[in-house]
Amino acid sequence: MKMKNDSIVRKQMMLYMATIAVFVAVVCGALTIFYTKHYMAEKREELIQQGEKIAQAYKKGYRTGNLSELSYELQILESYMGSGVLVINENGEVALASPGFNDEFLEDNRISQTLIERVQNGEIVSVQTKSGQVSDTPMLVVGYPFSEGHLAGILMCRSLPEIEESLKEMYQISVISLFFVSFLGLIVSYMTAKYVALPLMRMNRAAKVIANGNFEERVDVTSSDELGELAQSFNHMAESLQTHEKVQKDFIANISHDLRSPLTSMQGFLTAMLDGTIPPEKREHYLKIVLEETERLSRMTQSIVELSRAQSSAILLDESDFELNELIRWNIEMLEPQLEEKNVQIHGIYEAEQTMVHGDRDKISRVLQNLLGNAAKFSPQNGIIEVETTLDKKKVLVSVKDQGPGISEEDQKYVFDRFFKTDTTRNMDKTGSGIGLAIVREFLQAHGETITVKSEKGRGATFVFSLKLAKKEN
């Protein structure tokens, strides 16, 4: 099935747009509530202050007998402040009105009696009236009580449509600002999405190239953040794949040569015996050579089978307590023919006279056999191999040190990988298949243990692995 091309940039942009839309909706709603409450409260306060000023002016004019200034001030309030003023007497009737209120309204006296009564009781009242209650338009009315002569209070009136028009302008400015900021946010979001997606797209393209078999493809590391770390990990993965591919190709070449050599040898000897080239008295000698070659082939195939089982998690351990020093000595004795060829000596250095450990004796014996065999194989003439045990809490550390050509720092990363052979040892190791150390690691990992290597070029190598001590020695 062909997968639908769904760009990560498009997904991120859709997410950003949805987030911004929700943010704008919430902010607009919050600003609407805030502006309305705040602005209406501000207008009420303004009308209360105007009512207080009118009351003071009226008291002054009433005492001096000069009310001309009060009429002028009412006219100014209505013209420039948009506020109408009604002065009511103690009977609830309009005693004085600003010019904006027509005579018909004054004759009808459409003011709410409840409002008048509350003002007459000395309460500052703020109400929003509908059309026709105080004026032909809805009004914000603030009643300010004051007592002077027969007067009882002042009603300050402000047109609600005018207030709403001012609020509308504020809303428009706020919405325009929000949309402008949102637009900038979308631009920044797009750039951010591209910044995040571009390295991923490059890695995707590189992954497709690698999937097609080109393991030399790499991606540029352009940052030190998580994306940079991902790019470095990707390049490390590609390098590992390239190395494994090279190792596998080398293994196929080496194993093909290793299998072909004994087969060619056996075929040649058997053909020679059949056609009479080899005389009967020498057949036994050459048959022994053929037998040795078959045993060599058997060991090679058995190693491959063991590694395959180990890497498929099919290792079954037969664990028990056994004496480690004795097992080391036994494996050294098995190597005597190989050691005598080069006059190589093995020195055993044991921290304790007896070291009881817990594990699969046969598997650990195979680990020692492979490590000691490698050490003997790569040791120079008259060389020395050191096998040392060191107690460490509930573990024992076993080290095998040789005086061979050593392993480079780069090769140490892959020395436990299957089919790997270092360039230095290729010419020295004619019989190995490059899976001995891989088997060692798999057997130890099955025990829950580890193995490490320390080496320098030209100065030998030291392999160290751990084992659990038997409980009685904990």
Can you describe what's shown?
The chain is α+β, with helices and mostly antiparallel strands and 474 residues long. The protein is 57% helix and 17% strand. Strands 6, 7, 8, 9, 10, 11 and 12 form a seven-stranded mixed sheet that branches. Strands 2-1-5-4-3 form a five-stranded antiparallel sheet, sandwiched between helices. The radius of gyration is 50 Å and the shape is rod-shaped.
Biggest β-sheet strands, sense, barrel = 7 strands, mixed
Which ranges are low-confidence, i.e. pLDDT below 50, for 5 or more consecutive residues? 1-5
Question: How does the helix and strand content classify structurally?
Answer: alpha+beta
Number of DSSP-assigned strands: 12
State the distance separating the first and last CA atoms.
59 Å
Report the mean per-residue pLDDT as an integer: 77
| Shape category | rod-shaped
Keywords for this entry:
single chain, alpha+beta, seven-stranded mixed β-sheet, five-stranded antiparallel β-sheet, 12 helices, rod-shaped
Outline the secondary-structure elements.
Elements: H1 8-64, H2 68-81, E1 83-89, E2 94-97, H3 103-108, H4 113-120, E3 125-129, E4 139-148, E5 151-159, H5 160-211, H6 226-274, H7 280-311, E6 319-323, H8 324-334, H9 336-342, E7 345-350, E8 356-360, H10 361-378, E9 384-392, E10 395-401, H11 409-412, H12 436-446, E11 451-455, E12 461-469
Parallel strand pairs: 7-9
Antiparallel strand pairs: 1-2, 1-5, 3-4, 4-5, 6-8, 8-12, 9-10, 10-12, 11-12
Helix pairs in contact: 1-2, 1-5, 5-6, 6-7, 7-12, 8-10, 10-12
Quick rundown:
The two termini are 59 Å apart.
